[in-house]
Design a protein that fits this description.
This protein has 81 residues and is an all-alpha fold. The chain has a single domain, classed as lambda repressor-like DNA-binding domains (434 Repressor (Amino-terminal Domain)). Helices cover 56% and strands 0% of the residues. Helix 2 packs across helix 3.
Length: 81
């Protein structure tokens, strides 16, 4: 198994990735926030790259998308095609 390369991870790129996945699912920010159990304003901050979410909240977001935490941090556009 290859080690996970997190070199691309920063708040802005994480926000872009979250927004990309959310849109691929056809969800509004409010729907993702509800599914992840986080406040919509907090999610908006994550998607704008203004928040640095905890591991717990990252895990909640990944679970909402039904993906692994590693997949959340992978720049892979297959989910958005």
């Amino acid at each position: 198994m290859q080690p996970l390369n997190l070199s691309f991870v920063n708040a802005e790129k994480l926000g872009v990735r979250s927004r990309q996945l959310r849109r691929a699912h056809g969800w509004t920010p409010e729907v993702l926030a509800e599914k992840a159990g986080i406040h919509p304003v907090y999610l908006a901050g994550i998607e704008r790259g203004k928040r640095n979410p905890s591991f717990k909240n990252l895990h909640r977001i990944a679970e909402a998308f039904d993906i692994s935490l590693a997949t959340l941090f992978t720049e892979n556009t297959r989910e958005t095609e």
